[in-house]
Structure formats: structure tokens, C-alpha cells
Design a protein that fits this description.
Keywords: DNA damage, DNA recombination, DNA repair. It contains six helices and eight strands, in the order βββββαααβββααα. The chain is of the alpha+beta class.
Length: 235
Amino acid sequence: MAHAAFVIHSRPYRETSQLVEVFTREQGRQSLVAKGSRQPRSPLKGLLQPFVPLRLGFAGKGELKNLHHAEATAPAIRLTGTALYSGLYLNELIYYLLEAHTPFDEVFDAYHNTLTKLANGEGIEPCLRHFEFYMLNILGYGVDFTQDALSGEAIRPEAWYRYQPESGFIALEQAEPGAYPGDHLYALAELDLSRLGVLASAKRFSRQALGPYLGGRVLRSRALFIKGKRGSRSE
């Protein structure tokens, strides 16, 4: 059986092969051995790259399966600049948040659509926030933006709230650093990111909400993005 897939990570394995992490539509995240893929004349050499829509054939009984066949089903999704770092960030979310060998066909489609939007020049921040919120909800980590997690009362647009990880939003007597305005929370409930202030609140919330599930890891895509920005400033 062939599987729609994207490569999300790869590394050298032995002398001429690779260990390839792929995200498939039908069987979720899989670890594959691509034998001989680093040989100069291997047809896989330029194929097993991120953001290339693939159809893969693989088999095996253990955690690590053998790749038998790979073909591109469409040209590579071309990401450059900040969009490229954003695509790498999506790959890290897939790698760290999704359980291996579990189908997430809707997540696969959302991932593919987000990559396409990034390649088409749509706003990077809204694209990432939409995907992060989607991931939180699909994995059961979402929160209610319209109800106080402590009192159970409706969020008041004029009030201020702090985020309690893995619980929700709790009312404050007054504003404090990092607090969320109630009207921003209602906008987040509707995924209305048209205001810059709400977009900033969405980014802050995503980092707070995803943090516990990323295990405190420093994501490589963020480190590369910061390094790239520093390099451009020094030129």
C-alpha cells in the first residue's frame, strides 16, 4: 500500500543510508530506513526532502520500517525566508506532539494546507496561529476562551485574565504583565486575528499552552530563525 507523506526530519544512517521521519496521511508519523539513499546515483537522494509531497511504500514489523518505494506526487512546496523557518517549525510540532503510528488524517490535511498558504505568501503569523490552535484542539489541549476557569462565569470583555496552564483563564483584580484583556479572549474564541493586539495575544497563548507538551525543548527552527536574523543584521 502506498501512503501520502511528507518528510519532517532525516539524518545519516550507517555509510550510505538515512533514517527518515515521515508524516503520512494514512498511518501517521513513521520512522523509516532509506537504504542507499545517500549514494551519489540514488534516485532517493534529492527526493527525501522536507515539503515535497510524496507517495511512499514501506514495510516492517518493528518501530523502524524499511522504505521500499518513493515518488513525488507534486513539485516541492517552495518556502523561502521566514516562511521556510515557519515550515520547519510546523515539522517540529508534528514530530514532538503527535504520537507515532497513529493516523491523524485531518492534521495531515491541515499541515499540507498551511504549507501551501505559506508558499503563497499569506500572512505568516496568522497561518501559524491557526495551525497551533488547531493542534491544541485536535489533541484535546484546547481551552474555553469565553468562560472563567475558576468561577465558571462568562469572560467579561472589560476585565483582565491570566492563563493557567492546562486549565484556562482566571480573572484578575487588575491588569498585570502578561495578562489578557477579556475582549482579546473573545476574539481568540472566534480565531479573529485581524487586530495586531489580538495577534500578539494569540502568539503568547500558543507558547504558554504548547510549552508543557513540548517538554521545555528549545525548538531548532526558532534557533535557526534567530541566527538568520542576526546574520542579516551583520551584513
